[in-house]
Automatic annotation (TrEMBL):
UniProt GO molecular function: nucleic acid binding
Stated name of the protein: Protein argonaute
Family assignment from sequence similarity: Belongs to the argonaute family. Long pAgo subfamily.
Organism lineage: Bacteria, Pseudomonadati, Bacteroidota, Chitinophagia, Chitinophagales
Pfam name, any one: Piwi
Domain Piwi: 382-676
Species of the source: Deminuibacter soli
Source species, domain of life: Bacteria
Length: 690
């Protein structure tokens, strides 16, 4: 691997050399801090004898501020309860930013601080934009010192019209978070204030409020996130942290951000990048190599009938798309030449509907009058959705899913496309055509490419657990693969109780293991999104207690995105772009790793069009803990996650998440809108959802 100079977004600091005096009381007073018994200092019994045995749940402290009625206790920071020290340092950070720098500080449930800094250049008279930064205290995670982890959480926007004025035209349900006197509150909290002061309270914009105000949705700009992240962190560090007044509270090291130690850095085997195309062809970049190395397994159907579903106003778009699929556009030479799919345009099957907002009755009426029972024909529907991509994402997903469901129940493969995409300027649609063609091939039962690896008796299951944005419904799905990346089948569950969901997952895992034999190990890639620790606990407990008929090592790999409040690393040797090489992984302590999946390889040209995905964070556990000590096994687990990120057939672009969690994510977006919870038998082992 070529040389890299990696840095964390972490700044080490020093603990006090001398003991400090903290003050404690059994009684709560004004401006004291409550401490749960898990935060009690080590020597608390010396000032409150018997307090640990009498089950006292809380005590109170002013930390290093002497106050009448509070008892002094010497604190040795080098050996003290780290949870107590974390609370102390979080209090110091909060005081510095609120009192000395007059910044808005949001305190999380566990005391972690998020600082909101006004972005003057991005703000307007109507909207104030804030940059958000999190500061997290941790101890000896990646160094021999306590550490301050500084992360960038993106932007929030404040609408500069008061709640009192807006409520005349905007329903209160649209208000979620608000700012009053430079403090952040939930809107519901204001009723508990003695003086709510609605005229001095301003709402933080959210999707529903923006829609109610008819504000344009902020454009999602594709950019180098590493560059943006590093620039804003450097500015924040220079302006707020690398100052003597801050170092009085937390004595940061003068060296600044921490360089990653060599012994923490490793790389996947270079062979992990290899993919198998049509025999004997191998490669590593589908975007470049698929067009001439061809599919690993070609389309199994030689009698494909293609038809279109479209709104009457989109007839020109449909005709344009038909021409592109037949004759090509730019370097894309058509569906047959690019993906090897021979097809017949079946114009008699085309469905042209008139009702834009609800085409379902017209489409259903056509299906009711048309038979699809010829087993020799494989139908492929191209649905030209009458909605823009933004409309589909925001509000019309229900119709999109219902059309997909209608086709699925008739065993019709389908591909959706937005008119605006087809009409992209400068032949830009050719890139979408290549992605579409690969997805269509996979939906028809072909295999665009496969991992180059020796098949083992190993079962890999991807599980996703999600809180759906339209309600309190929980959704989980389990996807079964072998170690070559070959997809076997999937199941999904809709549940209101996570313990029921957890039991369903455990049963499904057992069924998979029984159906596909007794593997040498079971690997579960587990991904959770928008669920609290309390909500997900039953699922994690069920996986931990999984009992198979023949006991084998069961590895549970928690896969997490790192874009928000978490640790990243950047390569200073690639100045200006900063992204580490693909396949780099970093040990960040306690069986946790950062894994970089991207398209930057040594000695190869990098295309900015491939993007700059952030790393994912892996946390590896095993029911037989001794296996966690086997470095080779851990390497194989990490390399498998890395390889599975290359098996995504919805796009030719490199993904940072493995398909074991990407596919559950796709199902989570569409399954809650389906009319019927049960899926046809033929759908559980196909990739119809791409």
């Amino acid at each position: 691997m070529a040389n890299q100079t990696l840095y964390f977004n972490i700044i080490p600091f020093d603990l006090p050399a001398e003991e400090k005096t903290f003050y404690f009381s059994l009684e709560e007073t004004k401006k004291s801090n409550r401490l749960h018994r898990t935060l009690f200092p080590n020597d608390i019994e010396t000032i409150f004898p018997g307090i640990l045995s009498d089950n006292t749940e809380f005590i109170y402290t002013t930390f290093d501020y002497a106050k009448e009625g509070f008892t002094a206790l010497s604190i040795d920071f080098k050996t003290e309860n780290q949870d107590l020290l974390r609370k102390y340092y979080n209090r110091q950070i909060r005081y510095y930013f609120r009192k000395e720098k007059e910044q808005l500080v949001r305190t999380g449930f566990i005391g972690q601080n998020q600082v909101w800094v006004k972005a003057t250049k991005l703000s307007t008279k109507q909207i104030t934009v804030y940059h958000k930064f999190s500061l997290k205290i941790q101890f000896q995670e990646v160094s021999n010192h306590p550490e301050l982890l500084l992360s960038y959480n993106g932007k929030s926007r404040l609408y500069n019209t008061s709640v009192a004025e807006l409520i005349r035209t905007v329903a209160p349900a649209n208000f979620k978070k608000v700012i009053k006197h430079n403090e952040l509150y939930f809107y519901e909290e204001l009723t508990q204030h003695e003086h709510p002061e609605y005229r001095k309270t301003y709402p933080v914009l959210n999707f529903d409020l923006g829609k109610a105000l008819n504000l344009p949705v902020p454009e999602i700009i594709k950019e180098n996130k590493y560059k943006t992240y590093k620039e804003v962190l450097d500015i924040f560090y220079d302006y707020f942290l690398n100052k003597e007044e801050f170092k009085q509270y937390i004595p940061l090291h003068e060296s600044g951000f921490l360089q990653v130690a060599d012994h923490l850095i490793d790389h996947v085997n270079d062979a992990s990048n290899e993919l198998a195309f049509s025999k004997p062809n191998k490669g590593r970049t589908p975007k470049k190599e698929f067009p001439y190395k061809r599919a690993f397994l070609p389309c199994p159907h030689n009698n494909v009938h293609l038809f279109f579903i479209y709104h009457e106003d989109d007839q020109p778009v449909k005709d344009m798309l038909k021409t592109y699929l037949d004759k090509g556009l730019g370097h894309y030479k058509g569906l047959t030449q690019y993906a090897g799919i021979l097809f017949h345009p079946d114009t008699a099957m085309n469905i042209c509907f008139k009702e834009r907002n609800n085409p379902l009755p017209e489409i259903q009426n056509f299906f009711n009058k048309t038979a699809f029972n010829n087993p020799a024909i494989k139908y492929l529907a191209i649905y030209v959705t009458p909605f823009t991509r933004e409309e589909t994402r925001r509000q019309e997903v229900r119709i999109y899913v219902r059309v997909k469901e209608m086709l699925l129940r008739r065993n019709i493969a389908c591909q959706f496309v937005e008119p605006e995409t087809v009409q992209a300027p400068n032949d830009g649609f050719k890139w979408s055509l290549t992605n579409m063609s690969v997805a269509i091939l996979a939906k028809l039962g072909g295999v665009p490419w496969q991992l180059v690896t020796t098949a083992k008796e190993s079962l890999v299951i991807g599980i996703g657990a999600f809180r759906h944005p339209d309600g309190v419904q929980y959704l989980s799905s389990a996807f079964c693969f072998d170690n070559t990346g070959h997809f076997n089948e999937f199941a999904y569950f809709l549940r209101h109780e996570t313990d029921v969901m957890a039991g369903s997952i455990a049963v499904k895992v057992k069924e998979f293991a029984a159906k596909y034999g007794n593997p040498e190990r079971l690997v579960i890639h587990f991904y959770k999104e928008k669920m609290t620790n309390e909500e997900i606990a039953p699922v994690e407990a069920a996986l931990a207690q999984l009992q198979l008929q023949n006991p084998i090592p069961v590895f549970v790999v928690h896969v997490n995105k790192t874009e928000a409040k978490d640790i990243i690393a950047y390569d200073a040797a690639w100045a200006g772009k900063w992204m580490p090489y693909s396949g780099t992984f970093i040990n960040i302590g306690k069986n946790k790793y950062l894994l970089f999946n991207n398209s930057r390889y040594p000695n190869e040209t990098f295309s900015i069009n491939d993007g700059y995905p952030f790393p994912i964070k892996l946390s590896i556990n095993c029911n037989m803990e001794k296996h966690l000590e086997n470095a080779q096994t851990i390497r194989e687990i990490i390399e498998q996650v890395y390889q599975f990120s290359r098996m995504y057939f919805k796009s030719l672009a490199q993904q940072n998440l493995p398909v074991t969690v990407k596919y559950p994510e796709i199902i989570a977006e569409i399954a809650p809108y389906m009319e019927h919870a049960d899926l046809p038998d033929n759908s559980i082992n196909s990739l119809w959802f791409l």
